[in-house]
């Protein structure tokens, strides 16, 4: 079992990287974080988080081709690694397990 756990922002960004697929780069992640989770963060916070996730081995990145839209600048595209997927699954499973131990807040009682 891997020792690294996920912080809340790390987990949200990992999920967004999976969701965005080939469009998972800094500004797109920041925009999706605002749209999907109502979280406003600086682009520096996004880059700091993806750099930390890359150091943990949960994401990897590559540079895209330059485009005219971005004035010839390339994008750093992120993808989730197998280790990152396992970290997301562990986090999901732990949360479901904890929710199920609180009957009054159980997922099945929310209907």
Describe this structure in words.
The chain is mostly helical and 111 residues long. 52% of the residues lie in helices and 9% in strands. The protein has helices spanning 8-20, 26-37, 43-56, 82-100, and strands at 59-63, 76-80. It is built from four helices and two strands; from the N terminus they run H-H-H-E-E-H. The protein has a two-stranded antiparallel ribbon. The chain starts with 7 loop residues before the first helix and ends in an 11-residue tail after the last helix.
Q: How many H/I helices?
A: 4
Fraction of helical residues = 40-55%
Compute the number of strand runs. Answer: 2
**Secondary-structure-derived class:** mainly alpha
Q: Strand order, main sheet: write it out.
A: 1-2
Largest sheet features: 2 strands, antiparallel
Radius of gyration of CA atoms, rounded to a whole number: 16 Å
Overall body shape: elongated
What is the residue-mean pLDDT, rounded to a whole number?
92
Summarize the helix and strand pattern as letters. HHHEEH
Determine the strand fraction and express it as a percent band: 5-15%
Structure described in brief:
The chain is mainly alpha-helical.
Key terms:
single chain; 111 residues; mainly alpha; two-stranded antiparallel ribbon; 4 helices; 9% strand
Task: Note the topology.
Layout: H1 8-20, H2 26-37, H3 43-56, E1 59-63, E2 76-80, H4 82-100
Antiparallel strand pairs: 1-2
Helix pairs in contact: 1-2, 1-3, 2-3
